[in-house]
Design brief:
Blueprint lengths: L2 H28 L8 H24 L3
Helix pairs in contact: 1-2
Length: 65
């Protein structure tokens, strides 16, 4: 697998992870006030996932993908 294909696969994987964490955050919000204590942890995981996804997309764009 060449570098471009690896970057595309990484973006796809990170996108799936970020989407799942977005849904976790959404589900948590729907259940409020139950589970409010988990907001910082769930939000931080989602934030980090989207940060990794953003960086991977930038690398892919720079590589021409």
């Amino acid at each position: 697998m060449d570098d471009m294909e690896q970057l595309k696969a990484q973006v796809k994987k990170l996108n799936a992870q970020a989407t799942a964490l977005k849904m976790d955050l959404h589900d948590l919000a729907e259940d409020l006030p139950t589970g409010w204590e988990n907001i910082p942890q769930v939000a931080d995981k989602a934030y980090q996932a989207y940060e990794r996804l953003s960086e991977a997309r930038k690398r892919l764009a720079v590589a021409g993908g």
